Amino acid sequence: MTDLRETLQNVFGLNEFRPAQREVIEDVLGGKDVLCVMPTGAGKSLCYQLPATELSGLAIVVSPLISLMADQVQQLRDEGLTAEMLNSALDADEQRRVLRELEAGFNGLLYVAPERFFASSFQNVMARVSGQIKLFAVDEAHCISQWGHDFRPEYSQLGQIRQRLGNPTTIALTATATEDVRADIVRRLGLREPTIVVTGFDRPNLRYESRAVSGGKKKDEALVELLKKEAGGGIVYCATRKNVESVTELLSDRLRGRKVFAYHAGMTHDARTASQEGWMESTNGIAVATNAFGMGINKPDTRWVVHYNMPGTLEAYYQEAGRGGRDGLPARCVMLFSYQDRYTQEFFIDKIGEERNGDARGAADAKVIEEIKKRARAKLELMLKYGGSRICRRQMILDYFGDESEVVDCHCDICRRDEDGMVATGPAPVLPDEVVMLVRQLLSGVARLHGKFGVGAVAELLTGADNERMRRWELDRLSVHGLLRAHAVKRVVAMLHRVLEAGLARQRDPEGTKFMPVIELTAAGVAVMKGEAMPPVSLADLVPRAGSRESGTNPRSMRTNPRARAEAEFVENDSPEVRERFERLRSCRARLAKVKAIPPYCICHDSTLKLIASSAPGTMAALEQIKGMGPYKVKTYGKMLLEAIHSDGSRLESQLAPDPVDDYS
Questions:
Q1: pTM of the predicted protein model
Q2: What is the 3-state secondary structure (H, E, C) of 342-409?
């Protein structure tokens, strides 16, 4: 097995694994089935994307959302990986092209909706290529369980489909699954002694509230007054399309300075897309939507989520409320609680099973349907208990999902007990200057291309690429060319996707083309680039932290991580002379970083400096042999580093000449 951390850095442009990611990936690569339950934003996608790059063959990813497929496929392509999707958004010629590539021995990730497996053309191709399938990934796996809050009949057939494909190694992923839903996923997919990873359900930055209000005009007034006090953007969830339309009209009339976007399944595809994109691009917009809105939506600075109507289950509430505060900052999650809403949910429960009439795939006998209804009513009672409880709401959510985490410093309405009911958000965390500078440099690169090029071109521009595209379009003459030359292109691509996720930039298809998106700034991105606003705190880790978990000196890390071993040996064997050289090197690196306007780690890590200090190379050629130093770094920084090794560094300042830095104003 290759070094997973090298793949993480070199292919995906990330510096370190998030909690549980490495363990999940190692099990998948070892041929084990895995059920992975991670909160939204915890990095579930990497748990199947990285193994797919390590395995030679076809990796099938089942996903329910076309828009989410398109985003992930484009991001993988930007990172230089092979990825395709097969769905109804493609025209007939494109679908035939993908099928031909599959039959020719496609080696990469293929994203499909579960319905695709029932198309005869796809079934025929799958029968011929089943031996090539190395990985079967099921995203939003809770949809497979009839006990879940978002059961989809097409998902329930995936276990049989997996059998027909030869039972390849399978990973099922979801952000929302109780213990009984997890058991149902394992059973229906036929997972073989799977590793079950649950990283927790606690979201300490969410401030849960339940406000008892009667229906009608009083609820409308409570909603208007609540949103008058909330300046940021957010979502109002309604149980029915009729309520979406009436609440949209109400807020458009009463909150004249705010943009209000309606979204429900009864709208046309174009209208839903326009509403979603309008809300994503706004800074204080209001989305009024049914539960059709949200899956796959990632707007990190959503400051509040209000439920105008009570949802039917705590799973649904947790998932919908969890769309707030993905940037780690406090977000309000308010439910306008009315017992009258139970009748709407009971109506939905009574309709269970009717949509399956005449559908052989989803057919279920009356006994099974009645059991589903019974469980749904029990879950509704728990939802009613949550809304009217005087117990810590965060604790109730954790108890429901079986999470034994200790609740500390809770700010739900029960624990806070503020008289006016307002949430004290406190001051926003301060981002390091190096992060702010890096974000502005990235945005400046996007701005200078005026929405005419994609993510890859922006990354090549910023890293100072010397190729035909740069010369043909005279991009190498722009002031931002080479602004981030100390970074690899893949690293900058990954950074740009983080900027996209933060809402500072967006991708769009130019008129007349598909699946060739260009990148451009949003209004929020322009404000950050010009220094009129700070980047969102979700970008705080854009510059890797020093002393990451994998660079520690625990025994297991030293066995598998040469850098950790080198650092440990340095600590044990260093002499006063070596330590002195190391401190001179660090000082040199700090001055270089300041002049170059880049983070110090981009020049070289501490572990590399320690190796240099220990071996004390005397020539540029010897310096190039040090792990972590390459021809480019030696050419750019070698002379100064050698000066720092063999002198007090007094002549260093004269050798440092600052590169031109873009004018961000």
A1: 0.61
A2: HHHHHHHHHCCCHHHCCCCCCCCCHHHHHHHHHHHHHHHHHHHHHHHCCCCHHHHHHHHHCCCCCCCC
